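Colleagues,

For the teaching module next term, I've prepared a clean inverse folding example: a structure given as tokens, and then the sequence designed for it. I'd like students to try predicting residues themselves before seeing the answer, so please don't circulate the second half yet.
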């Protein structure tokens, strides 16, 4: 099967290499690994020039407000048409964006179009957005989503939202959560990882990996770690990432006297993330209650590394992680239960090991990229008839 992938993503605080496209890269590479031909048209960021098993055609952006997404839409559409002369796609797959150019390209080429929706197509933020702009985007989403042949969502909540808000029939929507690379993310010795990274080998590191957005709940985590530190003086906080809330968090840490117990790692290359997770005793995902519907990618990576996880019991987490998944769920936005859950794990290494083993088995069986790609190929090919006989062994 031949795929064209389109994916626009922009983070104002990280314009050179945003992390929001990690899922697309993993999905494209997993499809390539089972024998499919994949061409991906990403924005011209640093990650677009890494060595890949799939074909990558970087799209140059004009970095000006409003012009930036328009430049991606126009140039990727043209490059898609040109590439179709070389290798006609069987499927056009695009991550939801305000522009419908990928859908238009699919219609011109008379091939099925699959849209991936990672969150609310038209979020309620920013609050200062003009009403007519919001309504126009909503209308555009309704028109586009109804005309896509298939839609991939990351949670059951998003599936229900698309039916209720945009009138998309449920039979055209599949829930396909994010996953993890179970070969790259694997068990590592904690002490060896800490020594490799220059960390103190005898400390208990509580860790977070991700973008520092307010919905991640890191302010609550800082308050919880103050409670943890009073009972477990060897506990340290390891924060891997960066984002819009970084300065606020640093000021908060300084104000509560906890700044000396935090290692601010910053952004790291994706291939280094397993080593940082390996250095952690407990991993956390303290999402805000209003985090919204999204697949919590970091949890799959944590679990694949045999690490126990404490996460907020928001709907998208509760619907994905079962009691035997290695995830301890706590009430969101409350530092006390978060601190209690972290302390309980730090004080019970045997339980941490058991949860880590459960979590690894959980993601291997259900959330490896190989398993996810198999589900996608079966679902797309079932009715659309695009699976080639050459790849039938995968199914």
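(Answer key — instructors only)
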């Amino acid at each position: 099967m031949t795929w064209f992938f389109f994916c626009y993503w922009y983070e104002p605080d990280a314009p050179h290499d945003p992390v929001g496209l990690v899922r697309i890269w993993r999905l494209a590479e997993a499809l390539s690994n089972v024998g499919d031909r994949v061409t991906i048209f990403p924005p011209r960021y640093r990650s677009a020039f890494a060595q890949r098993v799939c074909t990558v055609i970087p799209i140059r952006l004009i970095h000006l407000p409003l012009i930036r997404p328009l430049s991606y839409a126009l140039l990727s559409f043209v490059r898609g048409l040109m590439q179709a002369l070389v290798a006609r796609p069987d499927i056009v797959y695009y991550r939801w964006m305000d522009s419908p150019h990928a859908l238009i390209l699919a219609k011109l080429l008379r091939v099925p179009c699959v849209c991936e929706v990672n969150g609310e197509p038209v979020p309620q933020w920013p609050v200062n957005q003009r009403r007519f702009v919001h309504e126009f985007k909503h209308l555009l989403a309704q028109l586009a989503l109804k005309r896509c042949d298939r839609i991939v969502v990351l949670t059951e909540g998003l599936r229900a939202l698309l039916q209720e808000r945009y009138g998309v029939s449920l039979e055209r929507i599949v829930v396909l959560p994010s996953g993890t690379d179970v070969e790259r993310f694997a068990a590592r010795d904690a002490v060896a990882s800490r020594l490799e990274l220059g960390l103190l080998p005898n400390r208990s590191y509580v860790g977070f990996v991700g973008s520092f957005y307010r919905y991640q709940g890191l302010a609550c985590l800082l308050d919880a770690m103050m409670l943890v530190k009073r009972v477990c003086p060897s506990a340290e906080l390891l924060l891997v990432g960066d984002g819009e809330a970084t300065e606020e968090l640093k000021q908060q840490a300084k104000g509560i006297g906890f700044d000396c117990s935090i290692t601010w790692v910053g952004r790291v290359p994706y291939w280094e993330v397993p080593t940082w997770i390996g250095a952690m005793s407990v991993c956390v995902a303290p999402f805000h209650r209003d985090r919204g519907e999204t697949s919590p990618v970091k949890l799959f990576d944590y679990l694949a590394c045999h690490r126990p996880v404490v996460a907020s019991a928001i709907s998208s987490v509760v619907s994905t992680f079962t009691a035997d998944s290695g995830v301890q769920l706590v009430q969101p936005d409350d530092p006390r239960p978060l601190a209690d859950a972290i302390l309980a794990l730090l004080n019970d290494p045997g339980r941490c090991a058991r949860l880590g083993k459960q979590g690894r088995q959980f993601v291997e069986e259900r959330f490896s990229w190989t398993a996810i790609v198999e589900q996608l190929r079966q679902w797309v090919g079932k009715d659309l008839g695009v699976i080639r006989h050459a790849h039938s062994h995968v199914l």
